[in-house]
Every structure is written in structure tokens, then in C-alpha cells.
Queue: 2 jobs
Job 1
Amino acid sequence: MKKTLLNTLLDNLKTIIYALIIAVIIRSLFFQPFYIPSSSMEPNLLIGDRIFVSKYTYGYSKHSFPFSPSIYNKRIFFKGPEVGDLIVFKTPQDNRTDYIKRLIGLPGDTIQFINGNLYINEKVIIREKIKSTYKIKCGSNNFDTNTYKETLPNGRSHITAYRKEGTMMNSEKYVVPTNHYFFLGDNRDCSKDSRFLNSVGYVNELNLVGEAKIIFFSNDTTKNSILKFWNLNNSFRLERLFKKI
């Protein structure tokens, strides 16, 4: 009897260990789920969105694995990202915190805001206003914004939001170093990104974690916690389920 019980416990333990190993492999090499906690990527990503990020798109570095083990300080199978990609990366400040932003500048590019317009390599980015008033969250506040369809030099388009009052009109000229990238949040006036050189700044290619691919679940946490599952019908964003990013 004792032997049978011991064998059962060992079998269950083996099953748990195998499951954990498989989960770590999938998370490290293929896909990892992430939660969107802030409004910095509105209107494209909302607080409460849960997304899958592909880990293989740009190859692998130590940040592809749990706890970022310092076993190899290069990327393997590296494929360079494209301007316009939505990318999760480890912040240079601590190499631990995950941020998600849109890639705007490649190594050697210059980035600058002039009179409220975004310039990449001295050329203004074409943008088309699509809404004159759009409420955007910033922390606990809501602000009126203008939203635009911006088209990057490679032809890729996305939606951005700029506050009607207090928007960034002019900035210094940013020159992206070798092996680094420049990121912006789509909610341009409520995003800590590469414009803040002391906290985020230019992101080393080693810090790239993966590319955001799909929203697999979304719950408006301002209305209801996911833990209160009996009230999900009041906050569950059905239209965002399995939405391609």
C-alpha cells in the first residue's frame, strides 16, 4: 500500500515536472503571454489586453529565457526588426522590466519632433487625422486627443494619439546608435519611451524579447476585475478576442 502510494506521488511529481519543462520551452522559444497594464499604447492596445508575443521573430538572447540568465551575451538566429513592429523589450534601466512600444528608429536613424510633427531621417512622417476628439487615458485621467493614421517610410501605418493641449511640439534630435533601436508609444503624450534617455532611451538589440502578434483576451479592469468572473459580461471586450495586432 505504501509503495503504491509512493509510486503514485512520484508519477504525479514527474508529470508536473514534465509539464513545467514543456511550458518553459514554449515560453522561451515560441510564445509568451503578456498583460497590458498601462495606456501608453492606446488606442491600439488597451489596459487589460492580454497578448501573445512571438519569441522567435528576432532570434534569441538571454532575455528570451526566464530570469535572463547571463550565459551568452549575444543574439542567435538574429533577424532585424522592421520599423512599425510592436515589440516587447527589457528596459535598459534595469534589464528586467518588460515594456511594449512601437519601433520607430533603426540603428543610424535620426528622430525628431518639429512643430508637433514626427521626422525620421529629416523627412516628415505623413499623417492623416481620423478623429478630432478622442478620449485617451493617462493614468487616472482622461484627455481629449487628436488621432491620426501615421504612415512610416516603409509604408506601414498605425494609429497614434496626440493631446489637444500640452502635446510635445519640439524635441532634441535623437541619433540611434549602432545595435540599438528607438521606440515610441502610440499614446504619444502618455508614454515613457526612447525620448526619455535617462530611463528608457535607446534599446540594445539584446534587450528585444519578441513581437506582439495577437490579443487573446481583453477585460476592462476599470470596470471589473478578472477575478470577479461572474461580472465579466460587464467588462469583457468580446470584439478584441483573438484580434491580430
Job 2
Amino acid sequence: MVGGLMYDPSDAELTELRKRARLLCEAYNSTSVTEEERRGEILKELFGGIGGNIKIEPSFYCDYGGNIYVGKEFYANFNCVILDVARVEIGDNCMLAPNVGIYTATHPIDPILRNGGREYAKPVKIGDNCWLGAGCIINPGVTIGNNVVIASGAVVTKSFPDNVVIGGVPAKIIKKTDG
């Protein structure tokens, strides 16, 4: 699954891992704003790795959690969804606005294969110093360079280099920055 091969999401082990993640997300989302320490403990248990000083506003949802790796100084605003069937790496000093979706899960294009219930995934990597605008979507297999700003509502279907502002559906380079 993590290696990008077809897998059966109804597998008992995967079902249990998703259940664990759902319970941790449920616990996280029910915490109070005064429970920062508890929130940190839950995220450390949920994520594969945390570089330090992470803050996520509830509500937050993910598939497995253990495939999510974030760097230092990470912030995600309300309603973040990360479908981490494959690895999701987010660098240092990154900010996610409300309603950002990062998706690694995908399905076969062929309807017969798709209706068979098997899936596959492609990893997502986001560099350092990135700002993802409200409601943007990062699709499977995308790599975002360092110092990238993604405009609100963008649908990112391909990878982009360092030092750019991207936006649109599908996303394209709007301008280059000094970085």
C-alpha cells in the first residue's frame, strides 16, 4: 500500500489501523482549546513523525496518521483532511489555511478494476516555508518545492518547483518569487 501497489482497503489489519486513527482523531477533535498538552500527546501518538511545535485546529481527520511526517513550526487551521494511505511529508515552517485537503489515496481509472474495490496510493511531499491557501486540494503523487504559496481553492494535480505562487484549477504557476 505505502509502496504504491494495489491493495485491498477492507483488509483486517488496515481496517484496524484506520479505526485507531479515527479514535485518535475523535479524541483530538473533542479536546478543549485549554488542552494544548493533551493535543500534542495525541498528535505524537497519531503521526509518524513531528519535528517540533505543531498546532492543528480541530477538526482534523486522517486515514492512518502513521504515514504523516511534519517538520518544525507546523500549523493547520480548521477542517484539515489528510488521506495518508502513502507517506505525506510536510517541511518546516508550513501553514495550512482552513479546509485544506491532502490526498494520497487514488483508484483505478478502469471501472472494472475500480468496482473490484482495490485501491493504490501515491506519496505527497511539501517543502519548507509553504503556505497552502483555504480550500486547496493536493492530489496524489504531488511534490511541492520550498517557499511555495498555493492560492485558495487551487487544485494541485502536478508537482511544482521552489519559489512560486500557484493557483487555479488545475493549478499553474501565477508568478515566481525571490524565495
